[in-house]
Amino acid sequence: MGEIELVGDPARATGGERPLVLSRFHPPPERFEGCFTTFYQLDLDTGGGPPVEDYLQPEWGNVRFFTGALPVAEIGASRAVGTRFTATGPSSRPCRFRLGTSRMWGIGFLPKGWARYIETDAYDCANVVCDGERHPAFARFAPLARTLCDPEASLDEQYAAILEWMDALMRPSRDEIKIVRVHEALVSGECASVAELADAGGMSIRTLERVCRRYFGFTPKLLMRRQRFMRSLTAFMLCEGSRWTEAMDRDYHDQAQFSREFREFMTMNPSDYAALDHPILSAFMEARAKVWGSAAQTLDRPAR
Hints:
By secondary structure, the protein is of the alpha+beta class.
């Protein structure tokens, strides 16, 4: 198995006051470079307490497999309840979820990975959460549930099953060079306009719009705004005690603009979000930043 690091804080579960969250990150082998954010495993133990609730920020497409308690997940009007295999498309809205004691395997698809593995336009799956076994875009991954949702299977067996299945399904895309160029330009944050993003990708604006719709899920302008917002949100989440004004990206004109963007991407005010408890997300983001080098999928570069 590839290198695994385990990060968690057992003290969080003391006295049942906080859930125990343990995260393991598995670097995808080199042959999958640029396709996945990571293969990750998360153990949640509520210590006999009620299920926890949290909000996932906007991210790329994902498939997640659960053993134990099954989640309730919502993105806007899109909902998945009690599914052992939950899939999401790229999102520009939060995913509200509720989960009890469970083990989860997650696989995040970067745009290049979407091109290689998923035949449906990302735009058609944007802000969708669903039962992956029933949705035509994600049903091809359903056989993984036999192993990843088996409580008797070892971590080695589960990780091997992921690699075997991804090897079997992988196919090249003629747009890979374009995808990587656009993705790299988005993450760099150096493009101030759609025209600059098209230039950085070496393509016309019309081609850029096609590539973004097919593999990224949103218009170029929205993708650029989402990146700016995620840089600000992750800075706030990783700096305990910080203020929004300290975390705001330099490209925001003022706090009023940031607040408007926050309401669009998270469907609540910044102060309301800051007042919420984030028992899973805070621990996971801290672990991800420490082990993986970035706290959120949207900040991962297309090649490591």
